[in-house]
Design goal:
Helix content is about 65%, strand content about 15%. The chain is of the alpha+beta class. The two termini are about 30 Å apart.
């Protein structure tokens, strides 16, 4: 059995996946590295709302950011994120 801290960290990670807006953002990031304005356009949401959700995803180490001049581009942190989502999809489709 993992220790209590590890269990709490795992529970917090899964809480992040409990929001459909964050899941939608991750699906946009599956396609390519994008800026906040492009995510907002794709999801028909405000840049402010997207930025708030991206901050949560960054804190959870699910996305990473890269600055290019005045723009910040976001992408998936690693392939684990794609795998977690794929496993979840597979599970609900059974």
């Amino acid at each position: 059995m993992p220790d209590e801290n590890e269990l709490c960290d795992l529970a917090e990670l899964f809480k992040v996946f409990g929001d459909s807006t964050r899941i939608r953002i991750l699906f946009v990031l599956f396609e390519s590295e994008v800026c906040v304005c492009d995510i907002a356009d794709a999801l028909n949401m405000t840049q402010s709302a997207i930025s708030h959700q991206l901050q949560i995803l960054k804190q959870s180490k699910l996305v990473k950011a890269r600055r290019a001049g005045k723009s910040i581009f976001y992408s998936l942190a690693d392939d684990h994120v794609r795998t977690i989502i794929a496993q979840g999809q597979e599970h609900i489709e059974e």
